[in-house]
User: What shape does this take?
Amino acid sequence: MAIDQSPLGRATSYPSQYAPELLFPIARDLSREQLPKPVPVFYGFDIWTGYEISWLDASGKPSVAIAEFRVPCESQCIIESKSFKLYLNSYNQSRFASTDEVIQRMEQDLSAAAGAQVAVQFFALDEYLPCNSVKGVCLDQLPLDNPLYHPDSSLLRLGEGAQVDECVYSDLLKTNCPVTGQPDWASVIIHYRGRPIDHQSLLAYIVSFREHQDFHEHCVERMFADIMQVCLPEYLSVYARYTRRGGLDINPYRSSAPGRQPETVRLFRQ
Assistant: This one.
């Protein structure tokens, strides 16, 4: 579907009953066509966290949970975030026989929209992850001179020295919604093995996304492709933890190695 047909940027009413037809898929290929060629092979998924999950049990009593949704990056589509929020809110006044039925409905509906199997996991509020911090080198205290605010892979450069295996991160990532222009704030975690990447150049590259308009998933894939093409690491992962909007956060993870899992982390802004 074309993005101009989505609910983004439009006044919408919140549904009061279960409505899977609200989900709005957007083909991943539309943005992947813009990645540098040849497009590197990557693996991973988009981890969505829903903090405002609620439904009615068989007696009409409300239930609440925190949910994690994992959408594989090989799925045909991403799910537009506003439609996702409206869909989740459609559970609020709907009765279900059990929590398992709610999870099964969500897995069925989200998988159909994404074009691949989506995994759904519920957590009780008191058992979900506490906030913590990233284990790695923070880039944010490095100076930048007249930084650019649109993505530019030419900012990246290799440093000196032997090969390294390091994790670096920045809390300065900002991108913008491609439809509404609203700011999206995130921390980005980059783990790589290979020739050292100059930290100052990497921070300048991250900051260059500040006025870039695209979906979270596509921004991470752009970062992954640029770093892989310019710096040629033996291994690379890029993991962005975005702050929530409307009770949902989106956390895309891309890795050059299949089967890798990101560090279990929930940052303080989340």
Remarks:
- The CA atoms of residues 25 and 130 lie 31 Å apart.
- The first helix runs from residue 29 to 32.
- The beta strands are 25-27, 43-56, 62-72, 77-79, 119-123, 137-138, 164-176, 183-194, 235-242, 248-255.
- Residues 137-255 form a domain with the GTP Cyclohydrolase I, domain 2 fold (CATH 3.30.1130.10).
